[in-house]
Write a structure and sequence with these properties.
Layout lengths: L26 E7 L3 H13 L5 E4 L16 E2 L3 H12 L13 H20 L3 E2 L3 E6 L3 H13 L17 E4 H7 L7 E7 L3 E3 L1 H14 L3 E4 L2 E12 L11 E11 L6 E10 L5 H6 L11 E10 L10 E4 L16 E4 L5 E4 L3 E3 L21 H9 L10 E11 L11 E5 L1 H5 L13 E5 L5 H19 L7
Parallel strand pairs: 1-2, 1-12, 2-9, 5-14, 12-20
Antiparallel strand pairs: 3-8, 4-8, 5-7, 6-7, 10-11, 11-12, 13-16, 13-17, 13-18, 15-16, 19-20
Helix pairs in contact: 1-6, 1-10, 2-4, 3-10
This protein binds flavin-adenine dinucleotide and 2-acetamido-2-deoxy-beta-D-glucopyranose (NAG) (4 copies).
One 2-acetamido-2-deoxy-beta-D-glucopyranose binds next to loops.
């Protein structure tokens, strides 16, 4: 793992001043940037919750989810995922500024998101399967899964959830032989396993199609594809817009300029509330607004998958995860280790591994695109990792499959990092007020670091943004 000398990317989207400020002529209540699974979930919830308001979702590609959201393991995480963080805290208690991961947004939104995901999948017949997952342990790793199990018992149901089970995260400790009864191909070296019945898989494309359909069929929702946001400016001043209720001539929000297709000119639009769910590019837009020294760095960690066609997995019917590393650099919060996943067709895949990218050409915020091509270089290490628990998997059966990139807010040495929901207000940029707690309306909410379990959490992220953050803000209550 090339873990050293990874630098963050701090390029600003509009640094070269290509697009000048323009006065908007139309207005939208909610504008969501990014049509990945998270942006779609937020737009769907806004359109459902506020049918009389307008919600636009702007996506630069011709369809949804073409960046990270179509390159994941498609696993509905039970929340056990988040226990790896707890484990980390116990190991490095002394680390400064560390979150208490059981209270982290990743933990809460994963558990709540899992519940919402299964509900939606069942209600809308979105292909999914609750396969269950095994975290398998060799002798030296037995204490690790025992601690995970212990921690799982103590996790509480997060806000909004409707407890279905006494335990928010059911797990069982089983022996190696019991694990081999479930999965006969497992190595004899596996002496124990942690069974998570709530883990599953979902067809993420069908999920995104389902969300798209609800947005387009809603009264106020609209999807705008092949359109990219190229500039954002805070707006605070007199009303520009004709549909203002009489007597209120002020208007606040965000002037969002978009470019559609290969058109030269940008179109300005005033968004009263802006939600930035632009994934890997998310900080690029924000960085164009904030002073140089406050810019947010972003780190990119690639995960590669290998497909497998060969012997020694013929019986596999559950997801199989090794125990993640416990070192600072290869810990489970960075990557879960090269695990076995199955897709809806029952096809076996290994991955994702972890490999940090170095944005050498910092002027190109989309430098990572060229790293989305999987190659053979990762296969040897992946094979080594996999044969630790599935000993008869052959190297020849592995083929590079696809890659995804994790948007990370901290680098390889950075420790645990939670999801971040950053709120900015037009005032904070116009110089009218700084640090004031008044006029907390018309926010721009930036969703940052939405790496795994972002797919699982997507519907809960939408609930959190719409029901907790926006409905708390003045002027965004139900009307
Ligand atoms: C290898 C890997 C495996 C993973 N496995 C899992 C898993 O098994 N389970 C799980 O729960 N999570 C998993 N995740 C995490 C999950 O995939 C992500 O958290 C989730 O897909 C993020 O969705 P998003 O909508 O935030 O981002 P994205 O899918 O990246 O969507 C952002 C969108 O914004 C658009 N955009 C960007 N800039 C602009 C602009 N200026 N104008 C217009 N549009 C713009 C992009 O085109 C993109 O479509 C995995 C992630 C990776 C990388
Ligand atoms: C792997 O293959 C060897 C040799 O064919 C066999 O003895 C062994 O039982 C196999 N292991 C598993 C876990 O299937
Ligand atoms: C969107 O969110 C990202 C965080 O990932 C942030 O950096 C970016 O600047 C945000 N967009 C806007 C318009 O602020
Ligand atoms: C798997 O490999 C076998 C022979 O090694 C081949 O016949 C078969 O077509 C392959 N299947 C796929 C899906 O590639
Ligand atoms: C906050 O908003 C109120 C009315 O909505 C306005 O009168 C006041 O000037 C604003 N405060 C600041 C500091 O801009």
């Amino acid at each position: 793992m090339a873990a050293t000398h990874v630098r963050g990317l701090k390029a600003a989207l509009n640094a070269n001043g290509k697009y000048r400020y323009k006065t908007p002529e139309s207005v939208v209540d909610y504008l969501v940037i990014g049509g990945g699974v998270v942006g779609l979930a937020v737009a769907q919830r806004l359109a459902q919750r506020f049918p009389s308001k307008s919600t636009y979702l702007v996506e630069r590609h011709e369809g949804p989810g073409q960046e990270t959201s179509s390159r994941s393991s498609e696993v509905i995480h039970s929340g056990m995922y988040c226990l790896y963080y707890l484990e980390y805290r116990d190991i490095e208690r002394s680390l400064e500024g560390l979150y208490y991961p059981e209270d982290s947004l990743k933990t809460k939104l994963c558990i709540r998101g899992r519940q919402l995901m299964y509900e939606r999948c069942e209600r809308h017949r979105i292909p999914h399967r609750k396969l269950g997952k095994l975290v398998v342990a060799q002798d030296s790793q037995r204490p690790y899964i025992e601690r995970l199990h212990d921690k799982a018992q103590r996790l509480k149901w997060p806000p909004h959830s409707a407890p279905l089970d006494r335990r928010a995260l059911p797990t069982n400790l089983i022996t190696g032989d019991e694990a081999r009864e479930l999965e006969p191909d497992l190595s004899k070296k596996i002496v124990a396993a942690l069974w998570s019945p709530e883990t599953g898989i979902v067809d993420s494309h069908s999920l995104m199609e389902n969300l798209e359909k609800e947005i387009t069929e809603s009264e106020g929702g609209e999807l705008v594809y092949s359109t990219r946001v190229v500039r954002v400016d805070p707006y605070y001043g007199s009303s520009l817009v004709r549909d203002q209720p009489s007597g209120d001539a002020r208007e606040e929000g965000w002037v969002v300029q978009t470019v559609t297709g290969d058109q030269e000119e940008s179109d300005p639009l005033l968004a009263r509330t802006l939600i930035n769910a632009s994934g890997l590019s998310a900080n690029v837009i924000l960085n164009s607004l904030v002073p140089q020294d406050q810019r947010i760095a972003m780190y990119y960690a690639r995960g590669s998958y290998a497909s497998y066609n060969g012997s020694a997995v013929s019986h596999v019917s559950h997801l199989i995860y090794p125990c993640p590393g416990t070192g600072r650099v290869e810990h489970g919060f960075q990557s879960l280790g090269t695990h076995l996943t199955l897709d809806m067709q029952g096809k076996v895949r290994f991955g994702p591994d972890l490999d940090w990218l170095n944005p050498l050409d910092e002027s190109n915020p989309d430098f990572w695109e060229k790293h989305l091509i999987p190659d053979e270089t990762r296969l040897r290490l992946m094979h080594e990792a996999v044969t630790e628990y599935l000993p008869n998997v052959t190297f020849e059966g592995l083929q590079p499959d696809y890659c995804g990139i994790r948007p990370k807010l901290v680098g390889p040495q950075g420790g645990f990092q939670d999801f971040v929901f950053r709120k900015d207000y037009p005032h904070s940029f116009t110089g009218a007020v700084t640090g004031s707690s008044t006029n907390r309306t018309n926010p721009m909410i930036s969703l940052m670091g939405i790496e795994s379990p972002g797919l699982t959490s997507s519907l809960a992220i939408a609930e959190h943004v719409v029901d907790d953050i926006l409905c708390d803000a003045e002027g965004h209550r139900d009307s």
